[in-house]
């Protein structure tokens, strides 16, 4: 049993690495040999991954901003340091909560959809049909989803950060009687560009993790509708775990070791 | 046209799943312009044989040559080059559910040719007319019937004017009139453009109508082969039972549990698309 599980794991890791290599080939090398990927499908995917997710991201980010400000108000009041609320909201959002929470939403929304879609295509012989038509499934299906995700997750993160800061402002302005200019000044003073960049790097890495795990799960589905369900669940769980572990690693590299 | 008119050459093809040989020492040739019908009971290895011929499964031993080239020893990109010259109709049609009917038929043209959108539209319209479908261009595969999907699949397989057409049960699920239309189309292409066709079929009426040669598979090997007349007059009781569809006869009705379990392994190969591949545009 242990040996079987090990073999299955080995196969999965191998598939995953192969997918990554193939993806890099189709994006970085193939265009120079005259096989440029098509642009239109990338925009279609960007609308799905990014634009349609914006309301959800906005609601989440606003709630998080409000929550952070309220928690900060409570704790900092006892120290008489309520003026630092904007600092806390800003830094937490830019460095951690923004990238992580928006990645969580995108995993639940788009990652699972990609795994289910590609999985259904696999079990209904569509992928095989593509191969028989000499159309590479990685180029045709994975590349547009990958590029759309790489662009849209960081974009959503910037958008979410902004909305989250507005959430913090709402609490400060209406509950704590901060003045708006003071909130903005304080927030901008507290953060430097590296705080923003570190969050952007994180969300780019998360985008890579999410889309490759989802596509890999979808393309390797076996066994009908049940298999599609299992692959979708597995893709969500694996992407979440990988994303959170990677977040810890990156935080360690950016803010602890350095 | 090459002087060698042998399009497919299968020699001593063996494919094992575990201990069981699903294909056991199969040899046959298909010449240009021929229509070969492969028949046989469910699970006798027909689909496995087809998958070896399109290069998506590798044999345990033996050789398969398509257009004079050994497909079993090819790298993925060479296989793709061969695949541009053949069309395949899947049993279910295997249309892309996210694309409309005309986008499905246009897909090989968009991907592999540099034709203008207008030209492609013309070709798509012509191909769909050939299979008797007009007015359904903007529907999704979910919105049309199974038989229509199959005909769209056939139109897509013919989009690049292949020299070689593989069909997996092209007429199952079609009404008798549509079956005749599809059969006539196959015949017309075979006679007019010297297209070679390999058809896997259960439908005996259709098989005898289109075949120039027939092969009957059983237990992984060839039970009988010959022209339709030879098959019809065969003295082999298995052949007679099959073509007349009699419940009693030498062909065993039940598979043992072990055999059944083995069949579960006869799936399309696992996803190999993650390998490096190249696209070769048609000149």
Keywords:
heterodimer; A: 258 residues; mainly alpha; 9 helices; elongated; B: 283 residues; alpha/beta; Rossmann fold; six-stranded mixed beta sheet; four-stranded antiparallel beta sheet; 10 helices; 10 strands; 23% strand
Radius of gyration of chain B, taken over Cα atoms and rounded to an integer in Å: 19 Å
The two chains with the largest interface, and their residue counts, are: A-B, 34 and 33 residues
H-E string of chain B:
EEEHEEHEHHHEHEHEEHHH
Please state the overall shape of chain A, judged from the principal axes of the Cα atoms: elongated
* Secondary-structure content class of chain A: mainly alpha
Report on this model:
The complex is a heterodimer of chains A (258) and B (283). By secondary structure, chain A is an all-alpha fold. Chain A has one domain (47-257). Chain A is 84% helix and 0% strand. In chain A, helix 3 (54-77) packs parallel to helix 6 (137-174) and helix 6 (137-174) crosses helix 8. The mean pLDDT of chain A is 91. Chain B is an alpha/beta fold and 283 residues long. Chain B has a domain at 33-55 and 84-252: 3-Layer(aba) Sandwich (Rossmann fold). Chain B contains ten helices and ten strands. In chain B, helix 3 (101-112) crosses helix 4 (117-130) and helix 4 (117-130) crosses helix 5. The longest helix of chain B is centred in the middle third of the chain and has 17 residues, at 176-192. The model of chain B is unreliable at 265-283 (pLDDT under 50). The chains are: A mainly alpha (258), B alpha/beta (283). Chains A and B meet through helix 1, helix 4, helix 5 and helix 6 of A and helix 2 and helix 3 of B.
């Amino acid at each position: 049993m242990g040996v079987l599980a090990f073999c299955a794991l080995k196969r999965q890791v191998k598939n995953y690495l192969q997918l990554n290599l193939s993806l890099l080939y189709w994006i970085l090398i193939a265009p120079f040999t005259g096989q440029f990927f098509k642009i239109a499908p990338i925009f279609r995917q960007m609308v799905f991954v990014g634009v349609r997710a914006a309301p959800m991201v906005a609601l989440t980010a606003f709630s998080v901003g409000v929550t952070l400000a309220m928690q900060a108000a409570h704790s900092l009041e006892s120290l008489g340091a309520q003026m630092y609320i904007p600092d806390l909201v800003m830094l937490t959002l830019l460095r951690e909560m923004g990238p992580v929470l928006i990645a969580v939403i995108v995993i639940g929304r788009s990652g699972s959809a990609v795994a289910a879609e590609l999985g259904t295509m696999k079990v209904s012989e569509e992928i095989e049909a593509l191969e028989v038509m000499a159309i590479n499934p990685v180029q045709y299906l994975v590349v547009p989803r990958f590029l759309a995700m790489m662009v849209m997750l960081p974009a959503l993160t910037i958008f979410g950060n902004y909305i989250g800061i507005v959430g913090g402002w709402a609490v400060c302005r209406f509950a704590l009687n901060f003045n708006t200019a003071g909130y903005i000044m304080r927030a901008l003073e507290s953060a430097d560009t590296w705080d923003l960049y570190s969050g952007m790097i994180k969300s780019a890495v998360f985008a890579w993790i999410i889309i490759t795990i989802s596509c890999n799960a979808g393309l390797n589905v076996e066994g009908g509708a049940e298999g599609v369900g299992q692959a979708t669940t597995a893709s969500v769980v694996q992407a979440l775990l990988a994303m959170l572990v990677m977040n810890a690693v990156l935080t360690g590299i950016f803010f602890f070791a350095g | 046209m090459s002087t060698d008119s042998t399009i497919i050459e299968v020699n001593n093809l063996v494919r094992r799943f575990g201990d069981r040989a699903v294909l056991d020492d199969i040899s046959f040739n298909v010449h240009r312009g021929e229509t070969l019908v492969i028949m046989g009971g469910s699970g006798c290895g027909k689909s496995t044989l087809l998958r070896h011929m399109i290069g998506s499964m590798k044999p345990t031993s033996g050789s398969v040559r398509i257009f004079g080239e050994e497909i079993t020893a090819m790298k993925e990109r060479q296989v793709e080059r061969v695949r541009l010259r053949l069309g395949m109709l899947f049993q279910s049609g295997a249309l892309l559910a996210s694309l409309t009917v005309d986008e499905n038929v246009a897909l090989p043209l968009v991907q592999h040719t540099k034709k203008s959108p207008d030209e492609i539209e013309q070709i798509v319209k012509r191909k769909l007319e050939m299979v008797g479908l007009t007015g359904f261009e903007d529907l999704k595969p979910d919105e049309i019937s199974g038989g229509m999907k199959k005909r769209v699949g056939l139109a897509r397989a013919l989009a690049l004017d292949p020299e070689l057409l593989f069909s997996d049960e092209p007429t199952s699920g079609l009404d008798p009139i549509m079956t005749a239309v599809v059969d006539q189309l196959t015949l017309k292409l075979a006679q007019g453009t010297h297209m070679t066709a390999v058809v896997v079929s259960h439908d005996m009426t259709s098989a005898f109508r289109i075949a120039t040669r027939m092969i009957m598979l059983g237990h992984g090997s060839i039970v009988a082969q010959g022209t339709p007349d030879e098959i019809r007059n065969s003295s082999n009781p298995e052949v007679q039972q099959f073509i007349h569809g009699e419940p009693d006869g030498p062909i065993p009705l039940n598979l043992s549990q072990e055999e059944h379990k083995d069949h579960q392994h006869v799936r399309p190969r696992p996803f190999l698309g993650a390998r490096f591949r190249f696209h070769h545009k048609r000149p």
